[in-house]
Amino acid sequence: AKGLMTGKRGLIMGVANSHSIAWGIAQALAAEGAQLAFTYQGEALGKRVAPLAESVGSKLILPCDVEDISSVDALFATLEKEWGSLDFVVHAIGFSDKNELKGRYIDATTRENFSRTMVISAFSFTEIAQRAHKLMPLGGSLLTLTYGGSTRVMPNYNVMGVAKAALESSVRYLAADLGEQGVRVNAISAGPIRTLAGAGIAEARFMFNFQRAHAPLRRTVTIEDVGGSALYLLSDLSAGVTGEIHYVDAGYNIISMPQPGSLKS
Ligand code: NAD
């Protein structure tokens, strides 16, 4: 049967293991017939990514560390040579020194890690868009992953929240720039999920339990939930959507107070 993504080719950046959000997205896309290329950061993660990628029929499994711009250039050179064009990119990359993801933002944050967090977690999406759109002469869809700590203060999220705000703003600028070319640019703002990156945030368990108790759907989200929403944003079903920050968080972002009856008075 013909899938929603049959005939489309795309790049998945940010699989570290089978718990990664990028892997949930990749599985949803592959199930609908997409042809996928994967990147991995460093040889140790490469050993984990290769079998996952192969299990969804991928033949392109390429190294890329976004801190090293020459590796980003090499990645897109290979994609151009192998495929010639590209229909979509998933950017599910974030990093900050975990020593700065605890305590007060004002005390924890250094210039060095602020810059590094910004480059890896925010500016890399722009650098990827700069290269990817050139392989999208007939249009395409770019997707990144963000978190609600960008617009509201979440304890310990600190410099990552500042970087996610920059990332979300870049989604809007890139969407405006690339719209004429038919390239759409969106973000999914996911609720907390237990992943390698998520484990770097202090008291992640408390945040997880709090959201499960107070989100409208009374649960946290899964990588399959994110995969379903990503499928929509990367397919032609969302042809009229760009510049959007789409929350996949069991509704947590609409809540202003704990659920009634949950606090003892
Ligand atoms: P993850 O640890 O599985 O994925 C993070 C990925 O970033 C890894 O694959 C890692 O290799 C990659 N990465 C880090 N630095 C890199 C670099 N210099 N070059 C290339 N790749 C690099 O964790 P995840 O939770 O799936 O994270 C994916 C994205 O989702 C991140 O942007 C994260 O901020 C975002 N997000 C996560 C949550 C959550 O609760 N887990 C919630 C909202 C948004």
From TrEMBL:
Broad enzyme group: oxidoreductase
Domain of life the protein comes from: Bacteria
Source organism per UniProt: Rhodoblastus acidophilus (Rhodopseudomonas acidophila)
Gene Ontology molecular-function annotations: enoyl-[acyl-carrier-protein] reductase (NADH) activity
Catalysed transformations (reactions): a 2,3-saturated acyl-[ACP] + NAD(+) = a (2E)-enoyl-[ACP] + NADH + H(+)
Protein name (record): Enoyl-[acyl-carrier-protein] reductase [NADH]
EC number: 1.3.1.9
Protein family per UniProt: Belongs to the short-chain dehydrogenases/reductases (SDR) family. FabI subfamily.
Record's keyword terms, sorted: Fatty acid biosynthesis, Fatty acid metabolism, Lipid biosynthesis, Lipid metabolism, NAD, Oxidoreductase
GO biological process assignments: fatty acid biosynthetic process
UniProt: NAD(+) binding residues: 14, 20-21, 41, 65-66, 93, 164, 193-197
Active site, renumbered: 147 (proton acceptor), 157 (proton acceptor)
Pathway assigned to this chain's UniProt record: Lipid metabolism; fatty acid biosynthesis
